[in-house]
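2024-03-11 09:14:02 DEBUG pipeline.ingest accepted 1 chain
2024-03-11 09:14:02 DEBUG pipeline.ingest length=253
2024-03-11 09:14:03 DEBUG pipeline.predict start
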Amino acid sequence: MSSRYTKQQYIDYIKLMTTGDILESDLPDESIGKYVDAALTCIQRFIDETKLVTVPFSKCIDLGPYVDSKGVKHPGFDHSAIVNVYRVQGFTGDTTTGITTSDVDPMYAQTWSVFTTGGTMYNLQNYVMNYLSYNTLLQMRNTLSTDLDFKEDKHGNKLYINAAYSSLEWVTIEYVPIFRSVEDVTSDYWIDVLRKLSLALVKIALGRIRTRFTQTNTLLPMDGEKILQEGTEEYKEIMEKLEKASCHFYPLD
């Protein structure tokens, strides 16, 4: 089950790690929250968490406001990339309504009749020949026209889909969302990355604040240089790890 972290929880975590829950923080909650938002901006391009939505099929889908298969209205696809497009219905159609199409897969049709009438070898051979013929037909169709091949028009905010086999009523689109708020991130992995990166950015900020002016007559020396170094090293380590682990294969053009 996915988690959900509020912005205040990120802020409380950062304050705990930088003050030990004893000292008073040099930064107000509002400023710490801005660094949490900045961390989300840094990792947005690395997040590969996807979402699925089912919408009415069209060869040209407007990626603006839409109504999903449950009748819920949405403002639009706030996304960075379309990953894939899937069929909602099989070749036999929507069996829940009792209506089927004429595009029947022999694998479905022959399942219950292979061994009928005594299970003769003729039935088995007929089944195999039908199935091989069907697969040959699929290969020919895919050669001429790839089913569910798609092209996104970023500027026009359109998605063009090719349906090679039959007309569809609904289609499911898999996409990488753009996270506008840290509270939209629900993956445990990315919550952890966001938390660590936010802490590193706040450490850098605290280090710069504490090294802006130096006092030589204080009883306790300031740790500005140390915390600045810690934050810088942690930030560099996190970003290098994300760069190396990045394995996006999403069509972005």
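2024-03-11 09:14:41 DEBUG pipeline.report The CA atoms of residues 92 and 108 lie 8 Å apart.
2024-03-11 09:14:41 DEBUG pipeline.predict end
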